[in-house]
Amino acid sequence: MEKNPSEPDRGDKTHPYPILVAEDDLVTRKLLEKILTKAGYEVVSAENGGKALALFESRFFPMVLTDWIMPEMNGPELCRAIRKRVTPGYVFIVLLSVKDSKYDTIAGLESGADDYLTKPFNHCELIARLKTGIRILELEGSLRKANEEIRTLSITDPLTGCYNRTYLNERMLMELNRAKRYRHPLSMILCDIDHFKKINDTYGHQAGDHVLKEFAGLLLRSIRNTVDWIVRYGGEEFLIILPESDWIGASNLAERLRRIVSEKVIHIEKTEIRLTASFGVTGFHSIPRDAEIPMDAIINQADRHLYLAKQCGRNIVKSGAPEEWADSKR
Amino acid sequence: MNIKESAENLGLEEEEYLELLELFIDTGTTDLADLQSAVEKKRTEEVACAAHSMKGAAANLGLTSIFRIAKQIEEMAHKDMLDDALGAIRSIKNEMDLITNISKR
Q1: B11 near B92, Cβ under 8 Å?
Q2: Distance in Å, alpha carbon of A83 to nearest chain B alpha carbon
Q3: Fold equal for A11-153 and A165-319
Q4: Of chain B's two ends, which shows fewer C-beta atoms within 10 Å, N or C?
Q5: Taking CB atoms and an 8 Å limit, are B23 and A35 in contact across chains?
């Protein structure tokens, strides 16, 4: 890695797109470093394709400027190697060579380069072509961001920020397989706000929505951040999935949630609303590897316990191991 | 040759360009010695490779005469006709001496 000592550190003025330069000729390499640094780019350079690839693997470069003929690994080989890798974003690659026949241009572009520049290059043209590259990188970036947003929207309940049923169907299958494969515990809590219809009828739907948000917030703040996850299962019904917890651990959490909810005061305009919820818990200490357990069957178990909780007068946790596949130790 | 103009063509300050010229002469002297030894041993592939890299560097710095001669040497190597290569290397050496004198002025 070489940094030009004669150039001042441009700090925050540097482009957000650092450039990796692969060029075996020392003079050309220094020339490129000077031109690119002057244009405000952060430049890291290597004297052959192999070293450039090693640098690329240690740090992501959205732009690569590479010579064609180099020892160890030439330009097209470097292009192909970069294209084979999974990168956090698109890499804009410009091939640089004295070669100038049509055939070479085609071979260069076919190896994965985006653009081709012949030596001697004109510095204005070089900078202009890199700007084209930035336009492509920015387009790709906004497209990727939009896709991520669409993905988030497609799996999220917009009101509460919990996941929706689409996500439940996707992820529950993975959680079940993982629990089975490693014989790890897996549990779920199905909870329902008591007499929610009364809140809606008394204070209106907006107040109802506010209560749902507050309730979901209480749940979300009480679970283990990266392990547990919550789905808005129905109108005022939420399903909490707890990997790595057996149903006893899950029951303890449900009891804590029940208390937190019952102690919470929700303000709607000048009115104070108190609410309670009922909880149905089920889960496995470990799932037999050959067991065929449909996701719906487990949810039904949790639902049966929730029904029992409602029968028992609400504001209560009812739990138990799934009957059909009950762990013999419990 | 006009240093100021050459520097401007590359978007560089005169001083920066001179720095690169110096680097070119430094590395070029070694490269030229390698080139000569490759010619003497009739290793055409090495000759082509060394001439090619010199050609590229010269082209980028706008050193047209060295570029032209290096290109000729590369072509000679490709045709496996190195008879005139030593003379061409001498021409490059002369050109380089000329550049050294100009850049020191």
Answers
A1: no
A2: 26
A3: no
A4: C
A5: no
pLDDT tens, residue order, chain A (330 aa) = 444 444 444 444 556 899 999 998 888 999 999 999 999 999 999 999 999 999 999 999 999 999 988 888 999 999 999 999 999 999 999 998 875 566 677 888 899 999 988 877 888 999 999 999 999 999 999 999 999 999 999 999 999 999 999 999 999 999 999 998 888 999 999 999 999 999 999 999 999 999 999 999 999 999 998 899 999 999 999 999 999 999 899 999 999 999 999 999 999 888 899 999 999 999 988 877 777 888 898 999 999 999 999 999 999 999 988 776 544 434
What fold does the segment set A165-319 form as a domain? Alpha-Beta Plaits (3.30.70)
> Could you name the CATH architecture of B3-104?
Up-down Bundle (1.20)
- Cβ pair A247, A281 in contact under 8 A: yes
Q: What is the DSSP letter of A96?
A: E
- In single-letter form, the type of residue at position A279 comes to F
CB-CB neighbors (< 8 A) of B55 in chain A: 98
> E strand or H helix at A271, and its extent?
strand A271-274
DSSP assignment of A281-314, as one string? EEEESS--TT----HHHHHHHHHHHHHHHHHTTS
Active site residue A236: yes
